[in-house]
Structure formats: C-alpha cells, structure tokens
Amino acid sequence: TPDVRPLVAGNWKMNGTRQSLGEIKAMADGVHGMLSERVDALICPPSTLLYVATALCTDSPLMVGAQDCHQASHGAHTGDISAEMIADCFGTHVILGHSERRTDHGETDQLVKAKAQAAHEAGLTAIICIGETSDERDAYQTLDVLMRQMIGSIPLDATADNTVIAYEPLWAIGSGLTPTPTDVGVAHAFMRAELGQRFGEEGRHMRLLYGGSVKPTNARDLMSVENVDGALIGGASLKAADFLAIYSVY
Ligand code: PEP
Questions:
Q1: How many of the other CB atoms lie within 10 Å of CB of 212?
Q2: pTM listed for this prediction
C-alpha cells in the first residue's frame, strides 16, 4: 500500500527458553545491519522472555511484542498479564485474537475488541488476527467471516498507528499450505475497502499483514500482493536466518 511502511512480525507461540535468546540477538543484529528504511521488524517471544528480549534489542530497530494481554489493567486474574505490564517491559506491540487463542481459550470477537482497547490505553499497537477455517472457505464464507471478525474485534478507537490487522486463514497456519496470491489479494482488497469505509484515512493506512506458512521461499510472492503490508510469521520466525531472509525481501 502506498505510504504504508510494511511490518515483518514473528510469533514464537509457546516456544523459547533462555537458550533461544541467541536467536533474538542475531535477529536484532541482522535487522540493525540491514537497517532497512523501508520496513519495520518485530519479534513476539513468550512473555517469560519479554523483558530480557527488549534489553537485547536496545541498540537495534527490532521491536519486541507479546502474544496476548488481559482486557483489564490489573487485578485478580491469576496467570494473565496486562497491556501495562507489556509496556513496562518495553514491549511495543501485542498480538490479539490469534486463532490459537480463539480456539484454545474460547476468545470471542467481543473479548478481542476489549483487549485491543486495553492495549491502546497502555500505548501498545494491537495486532488483531482474523481468518476463516477450511470449512468456511469451502462454503465460500471467507469474506463474510472477515467482515464479521473485523466489525466484532476492531475497536472504534483504532488508528493506523495503534492497530495492525493480520489475515491468517486457519488452514494455512502451520500447515505448509498458503492461499494463492490471487486469493490473498481478494481478501486484502476486501479488508482495505471495509477499513476505509469504517475508519476513513486511518483505515486506508492501517497495516494489513498476511500470516500462514510464510517461509523464505514464498515470502516474495506473498509480500508483493497488493494491500499486503508485511507478514506475521510463526514457525519461520524461530530461527534468525529464516526471519532475516523474509525481512530481506523488502
Ligand atoms: C501464526 O500462527 O501466526 C503463523 C502464521 O504460523 P506459521 O507461520 O507457522 O504458519
């Protein structure tokens, strides 16, 4: 999208211990070395590594984010972390409504919206994930699902600065399968039109990431699709070499 600086974002999911910090350091150094003026980079390790990861990135443009937050700012919510805690660790972004959260923890659009509001209040950028299942795709419901999820999970205070939307077809996550560039283009054009309708200029500049089996081998094709402003990467973000190979397509 013209005037939109792409974002290459990694999601480590429930992977990574202190031993993996070398990969984050290598990513930080790699991004620093390439110093691309044209693209931003973000890594989202598990929250146990958040604080130490941001410390490794102080001299690098590589940003660090979290994978979820609670909708409340603090309180009696054992096991949860707040957006404020992420910001306190120098995290800048939080992934919200990932399909694994929606499936494993029953997160609804309404809850994802409340979490995004909490993220915004703490000064974080929310990366809101949406996407259809394979059954929905087979029933030609993809665009209906995207519409419902956009209306349901993007809060009214969303701007191009504080919100990123990630289109992640569920059947493409971790499967090695991807939609064709044409299908990605159709979904992203639809999202762009809907966001423009709802948020005007802000919606026209919101970053739209594609996620689902992005690898160094297919990144160039997927990232060159119109209205695709970067990638959300799972498996291929665990190794600095793969992550940097995808980053370097920009
Ligand atoms: C994800 O879960 O956000 C994702 C895109 O995973 P993968 O790249 O492994 O398909």
A1: 26
A2: 0.98
